[in-house]
What we know:
Elements: E1 2-6, E2 9-12, E3 17-24, E4 32-38, E5 45-51, E6 56-58, E7 66-71, E8 76-81, E9 90-96, E10 107-112
Parallel strand pairs: 2-10
Antiparallel strand pairs: 1-3, 3-8, 4-5, 4-9, 5-6, 7-8, 9-10
Amino acid sequence: xxxxxxxxxxxxxxxxxxxxxxxxxxxxxxxxxxxxxxxxxxxxxxxxxxxxxxxxxxxxxxxxxxxxxxxxxxxxxxxxxxxxxxxxxxxxxxxxxxxxxxxxxxxxxxxxx
Length: 113
């Protein structure tokens, strides 16, 4: 099982970025995929999830700004992030919901004011 997140970077507040997560192995059959994030000194939190049928759910902190999607043919899950805020700064991970271990490598997002 491999969960490889990519697409992070440094952006200014108000900017946009899209994260990608390549899902391989048995993980490609996970019915619910999610994006999580962990800011320095804080617990990892779920920010968005999507079912295999496309039903989505978002944490209140990102609702209306982030959009999660998945491409079954490419076994890839995306997170489009708009109107970014400094408090979105974190390492972002993709995983199943509920998550499995070990976690894959995350991707760092830094939003400057």
